[in-house]
Amino acid sequence: MSWLPIALVGVPLLGVVVAAVPAVRDRAVAWGIVVSAVVLVLAVALAAAFDHARPADMQLQTDRPWIPGLGLRFHLGVDGVSLPLVVLTALLTFLCFVHLAGHPPAGGRPGALVVTLLVLEVGMIGTFLALDLLLFFVFFEVVLVPMYFVIALWGGAGRRAAAVKFILYTLLGSAVLLIGLLVVWTQAGTLDMVALAGRHGSGMARSAQILAFLAIGLGLAVKTPMWPLHTWLPDAHTEAPTVGSVLLAGVLLKMGSYGFARIAIPVLPEGAAALAPWLGAFAVVGIAYGSLACLAQRDLKRMIAYSSVGHMGFVLLGFASLTPVGLNGALFANVAHGLITGLLFFLAGAVKERYGTTDMVRLGGGMLRRLPYVGSLLTFACVASLGLPGLAGFWGEMLALLGAFRPAAGLSRPLFLVFMAVGGLGTVLTAAYFLVMLSRVTHGRAVETIPPPGSLEPPGPPLATAEGVREVLSEAGEGAEPVEPVATGAAVAALDREGAGQETARASAVVDDGRASATGAGAAGVGAADAGEMGRARRPFRDVTAHELAAWLPLVALIVLFGLWPKALLAVTTPAVQSLLGSGVAP
Amino acid sequence: MTAVVALIVLLPFAGAAAGLLATRLGTRDLRTRDLRTGDLRTGDLRTRDVGARTERAVYRRAAWFAIAPGAVSAALTVWLAAALARGAGISEGRFWSGLLPGRAEGTLTVVETGSVPISLTLRADGLSVLAGILVVVVALAVQVYSVGYMRDEPRYPSYSAFVSLFTSAMLLVVYAGDLIVLYVGWEIMGLCSYLLIGHWWEDRANSRAAVKAFLVTRLGDVGFLFGIFVLGTAAGDFRIDAVLRADIPRGALVAATLLLLAGVAGKSAQVPLQTWLPDAMAGPTPISALIHAATMVAAGIFVVARLYPAFLAAPPTLDVLGVVAAVGMLGAALAALAQDDLKRVLAYSTISQLAYMAAALAAGSDRAAMFHLVSHGAFKALLFLCAGLVIHHVGSNLISHMGGLRTALPVTFWTMTIGFAALAGLPPASGFFSKDAVISAVEHGTGPAQPFVYASALLTVGVTGAYAARAWLRTFFGPARIEPLAEPPPGVAHVFDGREAPPSMLWPAGVLAVPALLLGLAGSAAGVEVEWGPAAVSLAVALLGAGIVYALWRAAPEQDPARLLGPFRVPCERAFYVDAAYAALIARPVLRLARGVVRADTRVVDGAVRGSGRATLGLSGLVRLAQNGNAQLYVTGLLAGLVLIAVAAVVLT
């Protein structure tokens, strides 16, 4: 009996209630930061209270009757499989709020967004903590509604269609998932995941297991997403606001893959063994297909979205191998993908905020010159995402491929060797599209962005802020190039000189830099322009802000940490997956 | 002792981290303080002044971060070599056992993966110290050289940090005791190569070259990783010691070594993955010296030597390696003969020389391969540094822009002459001894491809003499052809006004000239015997090649001696159209496939989704026809149903 899991779900829920108080509503984002910080502290406390000597056991459990008439229980707890995901969720939510504080949503109504995100957090954390099948399903569904609103209210131009597609598609998946869960319930007579996993499928007929695995797998595959059930994902990601994309990629996709590790494979081992070749086949098709789709994308956000299809393909390939090492790889890739793709979406959002578009052709090149820090961090995130050893992205993919190299007994080895080879080629394609994108966007010379005649108002006061530019841009319509605010030559020259050398220094010096360059821009412009006008002006394309750095640097640090010290994660998951698969499974 | 090894690896890493994170730390305060106290009217001027001072401070600090850790690493490596020479290890019967018998191995931690565990293991033995010395010495020379070469370069801090990171990664490869740890270093080297080739990314061509280098090597690395999987799972352990000791079935061994060979071919630019190396010359010249001549490209050869017992037990792999080497050495040498870009001449020459090492490995002599690796590392790094000095002076990479530089650049002339002599294999330079070792190893080799490899090796000696003579004569002799260039584009180094480059650039070249000249003598002193028969033959062939070029050049100094190739000149210059073939056969089809996938995704996969939505709407439209609000219709339907039920009840009962 522990209060920590309850608090993890209860605190954001309480935060939602309190956010309705008018006094709090005015400072909603600050309230969101406070609540999510408390949740993060609780998650870290959970990790600290967790007995790392026996990560295979379910710990810190809470087990109360919930709906006694149906035998449903309010059963929460963590083990080595769920603990990293709980902490990841709390961290990403907190970082999203930090980011929101500096970059209010484009659709306005920050209070409503905060409430929505807190409800989202309840659902996400609850999904990873739930140990009762129906409780899991309830939390799983709780997530859908707030995410629908995040896309539909704060999204881009095509948000309505994307949001409707998202919710209908995933609801359809959930319906199939529910059928699968009910099959398990009727066959096994219990909804307790711990008990079910402990039985390793004994007491359930093989045909029933296959049927249940098919239904549950399909439901989870929509969420993960598995090819060819992925088409809701690019639209949702492209239209969602930055925080929505980050949570969607960072956490929501993991709920699908977590379901495989927690329910589908341990509860239904015979069903898994029968359908694993299919799962593996769809996984590797997804890897190759997602990478190829990325190679031909024009839009940065859409490309990152498709890259998720490829990366989740590695996760599914790891599951399909049904080996401890494959599952380990899948769980590692899960966490790494959450960190890296979260960072990538933060960066894509930053690019969109500055250029007003994520279309690669319109972005032109030379980002390393114009935005040295954003460009460098984008390079870092892409390199991490393409699976460079020494960064977090590598270990998951490597272990998943190692799992496929020698799949569990009973699975066809030649088939999985083919899967492994295709997956290996997928890593090359992954490197190809990321490097080609970097080459197009960050390298080269920046496009000279003198506004085309007629697209701007006739010579008026200089546009001082990026927001002003965006307004003009949206009026000018589609054809216009991204426009830099009209600044004086002196200011531009000063910034160029300054920007050139900054390429790689990161860390704390950067915060200073933001302020210093703002001052520098102001001071340099004094001689030529009206002092009052320029004093308020920020630099034309402002490089990272303090809030962005605060949101990104923890992700960067964790990507490096898990890359250099994979044991930090593997020590927790290895015993857990071994117990999930049972001792009878071949190594 | 493993602590020292760890320190050797980690010091450059710390230097890289400091270079990336801390070069600007504190310098901003200076600027903002000046601005706050300064008068607003003079702010403009003062910013510029303070800015220049800041840049100089940043530059100095970055140079310290780059050089100091490298120097300490070099000193520690020398200490390690001395300790190993004193050490009394178990005699393993490898070629270094006599000279450097000691060995040390230490495991930091073992990572359980659920299958084969990964151990973070470092090991030091004669082979790794041999390669380690080469790496730290060349890296240090290049770092010092870069201080002069990259002067006035605004991105010098990141440049030197990436060089440090590369050094650290290469040292990790050299000292790795576990195949996965080795792979980590192996890939980080690839990343640094990518970042440094693309250092002048303003030019799209450089960016493309960087991407190409990364992708081609990555393609090989996939095979390399799978080879590691085969070895690791067969041995139940990824540690190199365990793998070499394990009793692995022959089939698995052949498969594993062939897969490893893919990674070796990628990294060491061997056929068929050689196309990235000439393009990689887009990077700054010191990078070409360090990464693309002396160290990273030699890592492939090093790994084969590291796992040599496994390769010896898999003769088919060695046969494949021999054929690859034979094709590569001659083809690359011919391509080098026809190039006009001095750096590309050296790049093709690197491919050709690496193929020599591969041929020695294929013939069964890892000693000859490692000997040539070290001596080639010294003289090729020297050649690149000298090429950098020449390019610095002329402001162009093209040999046709050079000529008569002997008087203008006396130091460069002499050091580069040593380099070319070593490359052509003329005594007493190091290349003579190491190439002789390789050729006599190939001569004694067995295996079905041996005659082919031997013939190719001898022919290549002649071609090597020819292209070395051509580059030497066209650069330093004949009429001066300097055409001053107004503004060198990025990717070409700055033009210096003075006669010779600054001492920070001359010294490293001078220092590297010593091993390039004397390493061979040291090698023969250390027990590598010279076989005078084959040595005389190959010397005669080399002199023949050089002599033909000299005669041609003598007849018409203005014309390029490459005309001796006749109609083959254009194919040689294009490196036999391999690039074009790959573009047509691989790159473009993949891009076409990608576009096809995107089209199929919107039309078919998502089309089905949207189609199901439309179908549902259409169906509901049909059903809605019945719900038209006409009460008479509803009542009629009700009555019809009643009648039907009544009839059914009567009929069925």
End-to-end separation of chain A in angstroms reads 34 Å
Binned, the helix content of chain B reads over 70%
Strand order of the largest sheet of chain A: 1-2
Strand content of chain B: under 5%
The helix fraction of chain A, in percent, is over 70%
Q: What overall form of chain A do the CA principal axes indicate?
A: globular
Give the strand order of the largest sheet of chain B, numbering strands 1, 2, ... along the chain.
Answer: 1-2
When the domains of chain A are counted, the total is: 2
Q: H/E order of the elements of chain A?
A: HHHEEHHHHHHHHHHHHHHHHHHHHHHH
Distance linking N and C termini of chain B: 100 Å
Biggest sheet layout of chain A: 2 strands, antiparallel
Oligomer: heterodimer
Number of helices of chain A: 26
Number of helices of chain B: 24
**SSE string of chain B, helix = H, strand = E?**
HHHEEHHHHHHHHHHHHHHHHHHHHH
Briefly say what this structure is.
The complex is a heterodimer of chains A (587) and B (653). By secondary structure, chain A is mainly alpha-helical.
Q: How is this structure best described in words?
A:
- The complex is a heterodimer of chains A (587) and B (653).
- Chain A has 587 residues and is mostly helical.
- Chain A has 26 helices and 2 strands.
- In chain A, strands 1-2 form a two-stranded antiparallel ribbon.
- The radius of gyration of chain A is 24 Å and the shape is globular.
- Residues 448-539 of chain A have low confidence and may be disordered.
- Chain B is mainly α.
- In chain B, a hairpin with a 6-residue loop joins strand 1 and strand 2 (118-124).
- In chain B, helix 4 (126-149) packs antiparallel against helix 11 and helix 6 (179-197) packs antiparallel against helix 7 (204-235).
- Chain B has a two-stranded antiparallel ribbon.
- Residues 33-43 of chain B have low confidence and may be disordered.
- Chain B is globular, with a radius of gyration of 31 Å.
- Chain B has helices spanning 2-21, 27-37, 43-86, 126-149, 156-175, 179-197, 204-235, 240-245, 250-267, 276-279, 285-294, 296-306, 308-312, 315-338, 342-362, 366-394, 410-424, 430-444, 450-476, 503-525, 532-555, 569-573, 578-626, 631-652; strands spanning 104-111, 118-124.
- Chain B is 73% helix and 2% strand.
- The longest helix of chain B has 49 residues, at 578-626.
- Among the domains of chain B are: 314-476 and 506-553, no CATH class; 587-652, no CATH class.
- Classes of the chains: A mainly alpha (587), B mainly alpha (653).
- At the A-B interface, helix 8, helix 13, helix 15, helix 19 and helix 20 of A face helix 2, helix 3, helix 5, helix 6 and helix 7 of B.
